[in-house]
Amino acid sequence: MTAMAGRPDGAAEFDAALVERIRAVAHRHSAAEGQHPGELLRELDVLGAQAAGSPGVRILYHAVRSVLTTARAVHDGDSTADRPGRGRDEIDALLARDLPGFDRQLRAQQIMLAMAASSGPGRDEEFLRSLEQLHDLLDQPGTRAEERTVASDAKLVATLLAGMTGDQWQWDAAAGLTDEQLTPLRARARPPYGRDPRQSDRLLYGLALLMTSATDSARLDEAVAEFHAAAAATSARSPFHAATYAALAGVGLFRRAEQAGTADAWAAARETLAAARRLAGGPQHPLWPVVGELLGAAEQHRGQWADARQTELAGLDRYAWQVLLQPDVTAAAELARYAAGKAADLARRYVAQDSIAEAVRALESGRGLILHSATELRSVGDRLAGAGRADLARRWLAATDPAGLDGAPAELRREVLTALTDSPGDRAGAALLRPPAPAEIRSALAVLELDALVYLVPSPAPEFGMAVIVPVDGPPLAVLLPNLVTQRPPDVEHYLRAVTDRAAALAEPHRELQVQEADARLGNSLAALCDWAWYAAVGPVLANCPPGRASAASARPPRLVLIPVGELTRVPWQAARRPDGVYALELAEFSQAVSARMLCEIAARPPVPARPVGLIVGDPDTADQAADLPYARAEAYAVQQSFYRGGRYVGRRPDGSVSRSGQGGKAEVRDWLLSTAAADGVTLHLACHGVIQVEPGVASSYLLLADGERLSAEEIIASLALRPDRQIGLVVLAACRTGVSGRGYDEAYSLGTTFLAVGARAVLSTQWSIPDGATSVLMFMFHHFLMVERRTVRDALRQAQLWMLDPGRRPPDAMPAVLRRQLRVSDPAAVVAWAGFTHWGH
After folding, report:
1. For residue 94, which of 128, 65, 126 has the smallest C-alpha distance?
2. Angle, helix 390-399 to helix 410-422, in steps of 10 degrees
3. Residues 87 and 153 reside in one and the same domain
4. Taking a C-beta distance cutoff of 8 angstroms, is the pair 357, 475 a contact?
5. pLDDT (tens digit, 9 = 90+) per residue, 729-751?
6. Cβ atoms < 10 Å from Cβ of 426
7. Residues 158 and 188 grouped into a single domain
8. 391 and 513 assigned to the same domain
9. Cis ω on the peptide bond leading into residue 654 (within 30° of 0)?
10. Which SS3 state, helix, strand or coil, does residue 199 take?
11. Which one-letter DSSP state was computed for residue 573?
12. Which residue range(s) make up the domain with 385?
């Protein structure tokens, strides 16, 4: 390398030896010798440290390191691979100085690996950016013939990946590839006797054959033979690569079976796919769900329906694995949305097959994965130590922040997840991936005194939506709902637009007129929405839901916990209105859950009885970052004075003055969350603004507190992770849209569910930006039924809402004059006044 010129005597020989050792590491990776890219990286870094004084060797070191880093990300399923700011600047700067041909090819390999890493769901822009980088790199004067070959390969890789990343593979994706063009690919995949082919060449040739086989059965046969040979050659030293080749051979045989339709063809496909599944070993392998889906289909063709469903369901475990692997929540969001869609599709098919228990398992596999990821790894250190992996526990704690949530790279996460899920008899480890079985769900329903769990699943028209019901007693069942479709009906569209408009008006201070106009539009939209909610879902569900333990003799209404999918989480289902004007709330008790998995976790927590102490936050001064909430002050102050006299009130009093106990800042709320002192209580009431952020790279949602300080959902998780013994009985979020997710509605990653996930027993959150005055009366009555009449949280909310609907309502003596005036000047029975609150948990 020219950069070695001018080095001291002996240094050139030392550098040359280093170059050969670095190249040997690169060769071992390309030859697929079975070493994890992370192991090769550690070996390479030792060599790189010895090359500190040699810029020429450092260029080669960084080029190889770039390839291995991206290969590790692909191997481990780290979806943040090739995102901006991940160490590429230094590499690019070094390579730009002096780029020998060998290093240019390494850089090209790195970009091609990045293309593979970014070929998953939702990453089209990154894929195209990598392709553009490759063309820029190789389309330069002086590019040699072998580098032109890399450029040609890159174009082919882009074409093949584009044909393989959709829901349906495009078997003619590279149909224009002629036999003449295949010849050099074949020559590289089958070098002269005595030389081993590079695995990348073998893979490229096999894929080129496979993806041009739409009308050429000979190419399909050759592709299968090529992949079989590659799997046999690598099975001993690299099960990971062997599983990849076997899976692709299975894809080819599946394609052949589709064409031939014979029992022998399907048997051959099943045999090869089953072998690929054994080699893959579990959801750690990127092709695990693909193999599961195809193997399940092959088993169906052989009449093995039960086996097929179990195979397909096991394939869904890969999505939970991938989400748990991601170093940050933003990276997990794309995968979680994709997983939710795949799970819902599978559930619809199982309902059509009358396999309702399997439909429940499928739905759960895609539910709440972001929240699951953000909270599940909090106790990893203790669990690893319990599994006999104290060494790994120490590495985990050293790599993460004090809460054990951030900082761990995907490779370490992979090692930790493997240790936990492989630990024999560790039910908690298995629960990282597998959702609860129907028997576990029924047990949780019994503990929480609920009668049924109900998934509400929309479908694209002309298919029917469905409700999948798990009763506390008896088998699960499904109800088809023809009006529950993913395309928004006009009534839903008007409602969602009104919710958005009102939130925008409240986000700006001094816009009282705009807020009043938005209130009117929201109220008008709710009337039609309530009618739609009844005939689209709630009416058929109540008609078909088994009574369970809510028998006529019990003299209580049925108690249902809903898990709405997608944007259905934004609908106030308890306000569904029957044609005679009766609301669903009057016929049943409603609660909501992120997933059955979380419902089971909550049921396992011992109750925390309510006490007249806690923290009450009333309309802190946000320094003009949002509109004032004068009735929220009156509500919060009245709640504290009437029901929590031993508690602490922070924020502004009804007259606008700041409480002597505190201004309602971030530190005061966080200190309360971390406190285990009995005097601080177990109830948190927040009458303040809650804000949703959906832009990439920012906090998902946050509380807006004094001086404009923000307390995000992520910070709440981190704070409570430091105090696993903190007992919080109730969190009331009387704030704007605290039940709506900032990470995609299907994930329900909101302020409300965040508190629930990290230990709170019960949470009340809001579906929209609740009108200030009406909310205040409802919240006062909720605490009255909770603390004076000693009802459960769920029943106290329902009783308060029924009280708002009752034309003969009478305010309790403790209600302050300002709230009594609000009763006289507003309509408490208006849907907008009471329907926006949702109960979660105990």
Report:
1. 65
2. 150
3. yes
4. yes
5. 999 988 654 444 444 444 456 78
6. 16
7. no
8. no
9. no
10. helix
11. G
12. 379-431
